[in-house]
What does this fold into?
Amino acid sequence: MADEKRPNAHEAGQTGSDPAGVPASDPAIVSSAANAEQPRRITPRSARARLEPERVPQPGRPSRRARHPIVIAGNAVFTIIILLAIVVGVSMAVGKQRFEAPGPLGQDKIVNIPRGGVQDVADLLVREGVIDQKWVFIGAVIATKSRDELKFGEYMFHRHATLREVLDTLVEGKVVQHQITVPEGLTSEQVVARLLENDVLTGNLKEIPREGTLLPETYKFTRGTTREQLVQRMQQAQRRVLQEAWDRRSPDLPVKTPEQLIVLASIIEKETGRADERTRVAAVFMNRLKQRMKLQSDPTIIYGLVGGKGTLGRPITRTEVEQPSPYNTYVIEGLPPGPIANPGRASIEAAGSPSRTKELYFVADGSGGHSFAETLDQHQRNVARLRQIEQQQREAGKVMPDVAPADATLQVPAQPSAQSAGTPNSRPRAPDRASGSRTSAGSRQQ
It folds into this structure.
């Protein structure tokens, strides 16, 4: 109401409320506000106190659990593992980079790795200049678990080969392959001489293999292979080829055993080296055997005289032609008792599958080949033609390209007998083969 008396400020203060009805300040709040408004008083310190450092409160002691020895050891182990992981990671990254980097080898090089441990192999590779990171190589061997897979032998390392390539070569056993070629027509004694001359092969031979049991071929082998092992390979190859030829032989052959086939093949081998003539030469001998004619082959005379030495070194004399010998097919009937050389695959196959002809004679044609004939008259004309060619070349001062030197074939008689093939085969042969007196069913000079 208008007449109602309002309280004054003093009264309001006494009641503890502001005009809005809020209580007056609480004593605690008022005291705090008053203290906040007053400036902070700094207690003066003495000069000595001021010089002393302020004391920092000591940190609280860790709990007993944190101080347990197992916890401490675990933290140490974990820290070590982390450090090792970092070291291993860095080492692997660096090692991989060096493992793939080009090596120090300036040119291709052959190194013989003997039996030994990983460190021995690494030392040898460093000495030979193949690698320059020995421990990276050893680490790679361990990392790839190749310790037991390294193979000894003779290896070719290529120029700037990486450590990876070097290790792959040793693990895969990519050893150097050497080779030796045994020409057709060599005797077993001549083959053995060649094996003994090879300084990559090792060991000695107990004995000279039987004649005709070695297959002339090119053979690959590694360093350390023994001569005995190589001879065994040659014998196995010969048996395989002989059996194949025997299984495919013509049904009407006059030879009855594989051994007789090899004997005939050895004569064919010594008579001609031309691939297009082997089956025809084989047919001449087969036809003569069927008609019970003497083979009359000069190489059989030579073998009877010198045996496994293979070469005579001079022409055959008339006395030697008539000289009895188990191998002299001018004297004996049929085949000699054994091979006179080691025939090649082509001659063996030709002996098993000769041409279907009626030819009984052949003679050199003056050009490296032969002229074949079924009758003696045809053969005599071929001989006369050969003599004419020889005369013309003598007059021109030339040497016949198909005539062998010093140990050339016997001369054909002017009138060969009806049983004589009269066929000098004078094809030149390699100097390491048997003498060049190739007179397949040949005849001697009267």
Summary: Residues 258-446 form one domain. The chain has 15 helices and six strands. The two ends are 183 Å apart (CA to CA). Strands lie at 109-113, 153-157, 178-181, 218-221, 361-364, 370-373.
